[in-house]
């Protein structure tokens, strides 16, 4: 079986290793390096990089989860590049309320052995990876499909 390497390496542009706070809209900008290699079943398919924020009231109660995303087209040789994801907060949510973030690489559809589009989006990450292997015959050699962190108080 052939193997695939899909990586979502998180590097953030600006001065430091944290998401940037923009001076104007958007409120947060994530520059997410993405690398997909040796994945012919993804050629011609769209993947999505999605970043979510979680905001809380001063009492610690969740109040909002704004998100942003960008679609990428996977080519015959895969994908390698930084994906810019912008997140704008609702007017009622101050930046100081945002406590943590997460970013995901989402692959919903692959090409099956007969050229048919096959959805692998249902279930947990582990289930999706297992469906990728059972559908395409490729073993995922390594991956980092999710990253998350917190903002300093």
Q: Topology of this structure?
A:
Elements: E1 3-8, E2 20-21, E3 28-37, E4 46-56, E5 62-64, E6 67-73, E7 79-87, E8 98-107, E9 109-111, E10 117-119, H1 125-136, E11 139-144, E12 146-150
Parallel strand pairs: 1-11
Antiparallel strand pairs: 1-3, 2-3, 3-7, 4-5, 4-6, 4-8, 8-12, 9-10
Radius of gyration: 17 Å
**Backbone shape:** elongated
Please provide the ordered H/E string of secondary-structure elements.
EEEEEEEEEEHEE
Largest sheet: 5 strands, mixed
The tally of structural domains comes to 1
Average per-residue pLDDT, rounded, comes to: 86
SS-based class: mainly beta
Low-confidence residue ranges: 1-18
* Through-space gap between termini: 47 Å
Helix content: under 10%
Query: Can you count the beta strands?
Result: 12
Number of helices: 1
Strand content: over 45%
